[in-house]
Amino acid sequence: MLLCNLDGVITPEASISVFDRGFLYGDSVYEVIRTYRGIPFALPEHLARLRASAAYLYMTVPWSDEDITQEVQRTLAAAPAGEYYIRIVVTRGSDRRIGLLPEPTTQPRLLIMLMAIAPEPTLSEQGIRLTIAKRQRTSTAALDPAAKTGNYLNNLLALLEAQQAGFDDALLLNAQGQMTEATTSNLWIVREGVVETPPAAVGILHGITRATLLQILSDLGMLHREVMLTPPDLATASEGFLSSSVRLLMPIRQVDEVIFPACPGPVTQKLWQELLAVMEKAALA
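The chain above was modelled as a monomer; its predicted structure follows.
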């Protein structure tokens, strides 16, 4: 099931002009949210990040959070009951000519897309197989990965590289050789009972699920830290997982020749249950 809301018009299909800057240059920002019990999880946090990404692109979002939330709810109400992947896109809009510099009259456009997902989230028993990509993560000084923009070629090429090598996904290193994240997910490992994840400074997206997990870890008093990680650190990890808004948690089975002892490990399973409890509480609020 796919349903679109383009500038307030809800339809099974929508069209964007070939002159749209999001199409021509990736000059757009977006967010991906999943519903839980039919309710978009952490929508305010996603909208805050959407605005931060737009500000990074010198782009104005003319709609209030209340306006966007209302359109999301209208779109969900037009869809059959179920759970959905929600994609919110703000493109800078179309110019009257093809040129790199936006025209002063260019008006942003708002697109909301729904796609049905599994009714109940489940933690994979198989896990995911990763490779460390040869392609580097985009530098924070060039196009900061903290901005969630429509320019996703760095991630796409790393994913293609991984799949051509027989893996499911890729981990990207920065120019200093530090691990950053996978192509659409934040990275976590457990070493000697401590949950570790790379800090924002290495060049990652500030994941909403990542922030939720950090709060859960703090609330539970579980040992954790944001720390620079390099590939040799994987050899001493007892388990690992990826986090994202749609996957939630994906256990890591293997990174290149390193096979983790547990998949999913006990920490991953514990955090999975706690994350679902947080989402359940939010849905009932």
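The helical segments are 21-25, 43-56, 65-78, 153-164, 208-220, 266-284.
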